[in-house]
């Protein structure tokens, strides 16, 4: 390790332990703005038109589901694409020719692939570097300590590019990333300060960004040329994001050691995990970070400083350990600052075990984990990692890891 990397290590250690950050006094954008714009577009059409479109959409969706189910069967991996239609939008609008009192249409709110990976699936142990962060000049980085990853329906990957203060997009096959949002640390509504996680709300095609050091969660229309976001939730030190099929948004608040749930416009906060006390009891968390929510709205939390992953069933007042034993360590039943998590359809938990430089797998009920990739010491070899953070799987089971302190994104082929 050269001195630059050691320096980064220091800085990151500060990050996880709550650095001071400037408060943000930017005015809050009205969350209703989006609803209204959306509503007025719909209102322009006649009801008949809307119905026709809905029926067409349903047919297209059905075709996609059948197509995907039939085509994506490979080896012991089966991809099930599940669709949920819900959320009826209602708006009252006044047009010159007629008064439409209530237009209802069904919009697709979630399109989340669920992976069924066999418990003995294997991945190539040598990762392919799809993004080499360090540029030739060694002074700038394509990705600089990447954190959370998100994969979209086209299998493109969004990257919370932590120390470049931006969100990048990587398209399959490319050697470069495209900056989607941010770049240059700041508090303006087009800027970020240490983003740590990102996701897409498919219904509106918006990016939701955990802008950690600005203590806010932002929402930005993905393809909008307007590089101004709106503040969805202010005054929260978020450390991880998830969205469920009903479009509830989950945010880990690592200052209050809780996971909170909001509606899609950032309102109606409910605590779903943690008491607000920092601790290691079964109802407590200690620096919760990455989260995953399954179909039943059970929440899985990387309880970072407790060195464990907790499953918190919907409505439960306590969680249960599903990975790690809560005691820091390097042996297979322990974790050391767990980060990104993914849970497959059989409840197997995949976790980036940051300080152990590996990705682990914990099948349901397991009392010990097994190595998915890494565990070959801290380093930058193709079979090594240096504090992995975010992880995602594509439709065919290939694994992508934000190898944060190596400033690169690694891909591991599914065997
Ligand atoms: C509808 O628009 C007309 C003309 O612009 C206005 O006079 C009327 O008050 C409006 N009605 C509502 C319900 O907004
Ligand atoms: C960049 O760093 C690498 C590895 O530390 C070194 O081999 C290379 O010479 C450096 N390049 C420049 C332009 O400084
Ligand atoms: C850009 O978006 C912001 C927030 O959504 C909005 O307030 C602003 O008016 C928009 N600017 C332009 C030029 O459309
Ligand atoms: C907030 O939650 C309450 C009860 O859970 C519900 O009745 C209300 O409609 C929600 N409000 C919004 C704006 O979603
Ligand atoms: C949990 O916390 C208590 C009190 O802080 C401590 O004594 C105990 O060792 C901790 N347990 C683990 C597994 O770290
Ligand atoms: C996963 O796939 C296997 C066979 O490929 C099947 O037996 C099992 O029921 C599936 N599990 C789920 C949860 O879909």
From TrEMBL:
Keywords associated with the record: Glycoprotein, Membrane, Repeat, Signal, Transmembrane, Transmembrane helix
NHL repeats: 379-415
Any one GO cellular component localisation term in the record: extracellular region
InterPro entries linked to this entry: 6-blade_b-propeller_TolB-like (IPR011042), NHL_repeat (IPR001258)
Source organism superkingdom: Eukaryota
Keyword presence, Repeat: yes
Pfam families given in the database record: NHL (PF01436)
Regions crossing the membrane: 49-70
Record PANTHER family: PEPTIDYL-GLYCINE ALPHA-AMIDATING MONOOXYGENASE, SMP-30_GLUCONOLACTONASE_LRE-LIKE REGION DOMAIN-CONTAINING PROTEIN
Protein name: Uncharacterized protein
Source organism: Adineta ricciae
């Amino acid at each position: 390790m050269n001195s630059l990397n050691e320096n980064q290590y220091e800085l990151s250690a500060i990050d996880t332990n709550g650095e001071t950050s400037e408060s943000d006094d930017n005015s809050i954008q009205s969350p209703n703005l989006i609803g209204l714009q959306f509503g007025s577009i719909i209102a322009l059409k006649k009801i008949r038109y809307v119905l026709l479109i809905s029926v067409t959409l349903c047919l297209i969706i059905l075709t996609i589901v059948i197509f995907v189910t039939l085509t994506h069967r490979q080896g012991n991996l089966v991809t099930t694409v599940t669709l949920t239609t819900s959320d009826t939008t209602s708006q009252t609008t006044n047009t010159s020719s007629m008064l439409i009192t209530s237009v209802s249409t069904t919009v697709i709110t979630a399109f989340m692939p669920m992976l069924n990976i066999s418990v003995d699936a294997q991945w190539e142990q040598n990762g392919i570097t799809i993004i080499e962060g360090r540029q030739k000049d060694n002074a700038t980085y394509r990705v600089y300590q990447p954190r959370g990853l998100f994969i979209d329906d086209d299998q493109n990957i969004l990257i919370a590019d932590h120390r470049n203060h931006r969100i990048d997009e990587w398209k399959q096959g490319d050697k470069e990333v495209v900056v989607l949002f941010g770049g240059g640390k700041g508090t303006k509504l087009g800027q970020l300060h240490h983003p740590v996680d990102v996701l897409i709300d498919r219904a509106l095609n918006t990016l939701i960004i955990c802008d950690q050091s600005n203590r806010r969660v932002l929402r930005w229309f993905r393809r909008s040329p307007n590089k101004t976001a709106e503040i969805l939730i202010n005054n929260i030190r978020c450390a991880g994001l998830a969205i469920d099929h009903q479009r509830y948004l989950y945010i880990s608040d690592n200052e209050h050691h809780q996971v909170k749930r909001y509606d899609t416009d950032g309102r109606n906060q409910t605590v779903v995990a943690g008491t607000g006390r920092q601790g290691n009891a079964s109802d407590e968390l200690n620096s919760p970070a990455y989260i995953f929510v399954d179909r039943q709205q059970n929440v899985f939390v990387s309880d970072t400083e407790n060195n464990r992953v907790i499953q918190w069933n919907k409505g439960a007042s306590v969680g249960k350990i599903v990975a790690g034993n809560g005691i820091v360590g390097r042996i297979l039943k322990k974790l050391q600052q767990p980060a990104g998590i993914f849970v497959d359809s059989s409840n197997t938990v995949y976790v980036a075990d940051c300080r152990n430089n590996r990705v682990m797998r914990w099948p349901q009920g397991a009392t010990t984990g097994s190595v998915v990739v890494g565990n070959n010491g801290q380093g930058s070899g193709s079979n090594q990692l240096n504090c992995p953070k975010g992880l995602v799987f594509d439709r065919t089971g290939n694994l992508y890891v934000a190898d944060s302190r190596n400033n690169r994104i690694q891909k591991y082929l599914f065997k």
